[in-house]
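Take one protein record:
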Amino acid sequence: MNRQTSFDLPICLAVEEDAFFHSDEIVRRYLPEIMGQKTIIISEEFLIGIYKDKITDISRDFGNAEIYAMGSASFDEAVAIAKKVCVEDIKIIIGIGGGRVLDTAKYAAHISKTVYICMPTSLSNDSLASPFSVLETYGKARKTIECKIPTAIIVDTNMIINAPVGQTLSGIGDTIAKHTALYDWKLSAARTNTRVDDFAYALSRMSYDSVYHCDEKNMQSRVFIRILSRALVMGGLAMEIAGSSRPCSGSEHLFAHAIEEYYPDVKISHGIAVALGSIPACIFQGQDPGGMLDFFKTYGLDVNPVSYGITEDMFADIWEKARTVRAGRITVLDDIKHDRVQLGEIYSRMVEGI
């Protein structure tokens, strides 16, 4: 994969305690020219209720910005927001929420060519800084669509510490899955006679290493939150530099996409799904998954498929469908036969945690 001739980087990455309460000061520090311009805050109804004081405070700091409760994380919703922004001469979009909100706001800002400020309430995946948005298209079908990365990213460590533990575990899973994604990227480059971008590869590897080798094991410590925040941003920047999602997405992501597309009733977050997928992916690649399993146990990330209602038959079918969900994406799955016996053994090992 050849590096793009140009790429964007966020102007601001602030990871601070109580950052939401002085977000205007942070923006003024990095982007003084946009202060005073018409702004809209995008979030979801339930988040607006939970974080009413903080969101109201942010609205006041940005000239009594309109607070907009989006209806869905869809392409149509993003286009509707972009239309509103253009018609009403709004110059700044602030997205406050999880991945659904951030992807929708990010794509709306991309379409309307406005400044986008990303303010996550959880760290569930690396989409907060990636050049892609995952949006619903028709019904429950979702598509990954290219867009511009945020102008600024503001992470309030207190918000993340108080977020549901499952969302932080999801962000950890999405980060650790880069180990198998990078293997598949190299494999694909060798098969297609293309080049792995060294800088994008290094950033993605640093993202993985910073969390995998982190001495701080407490997910609610500010040290760990800062490390995870920066790791997820590094993953997003690796994709921006590479011009594709290859630095962060391999066979383990195909597994997750197959769940999303063919088993939408399975209640599992994206990051946890790729964590599950990374264990078999390691084995398919000839790598030892032991270190990864130990890591997940340390943080209490459950990779037992039964915990998510995934039976052995479903597990095998998901891996069969994973081969087809992203046509043209070369991974280790192109090199292995669909072996039900091997998949059954892997499933049993994951159930037993060995």
